[in-house]
Amino acid sequence: MSRARCERCLRPSGHCLCPLIPELPSRTRVLVLQHPSEVGHALNTARLAALGLNNAELRVGEVFEDLPELLARPGYRAHLLFPADDAQPLQPYGMTDEPLLLVVPDGTWRKARKLLHLNPLLAALPRVTLEAASPSRYRLRKAPGPGALSTLEAIVQALEVLEAPASFEPLLRPFESLIEGQIAAMGAETYQRNHLKP
């Protein structure tokens, strides 16, 4: 028999994160395209981002048939937050800049690349990247590289560049709580043995 869970944050009822999830406005529209393999992940950070931002949407799939409609939002310029040789570093909005529709693939690097491969329209978008990403707070996953961030962290950092001096730090509160809960569940000794850098 499965445990009762919150239908909003998808956490077990006793560990519901909803009281920690903010409702933040943003000038930027965020569209997260989540690979199906991420949906059941215990640390589903893309869902936390979509719940905490008023101007965000989360779609799950591999092929997005309605991608042309999703990208054609009046008043927004669609850009893909994903590394590439020609990716432009994000810059703060100027006074007259049209805001971005920031498209963020969510999955492992391999799954995210697959989303781009299966959705040529997505791969064709102009790309943007974080010039100097802060270190990840994701203490439970081994990052593939020094600049690797969880989806939620990448979104927070991107918005804080674009919409400076606005702070999107409250989006990280449920994320931090989730990580602390996972560490507590595994026990300090197990965490130190398997996750702390020597």
Automatic annotation (TrEMBL):
Tree of life domain: Bacteria
SMART domains noted in UniProt: DTW
Entry-linked Pfam families: DTW (PF03942)
InterPro entries: DTW (IPR005636), DTWD2/TAPT (IPR039262)
Keyword Electron transport: no
Enzyme kind, highest EC tier: transferase
Alphabetically ordered keywords of this record: S-adenosyl-L-methionine, Transferase, tRNA processing
Annotated ranges, domain DTW: 2-187
Annotated signal sequence range: none
E.C. code: 2.5.1.25
Family, similarity comment: Belongs to the TDD superfamily. DTWD2 family.
PANTHER family, A to Z: TRNA-URIDINE AMINOCARBOXYPROPYLTRANSFERASE 2
Name used for this protein in its record: tRNA-uridine aminocarboxypropyltransferase
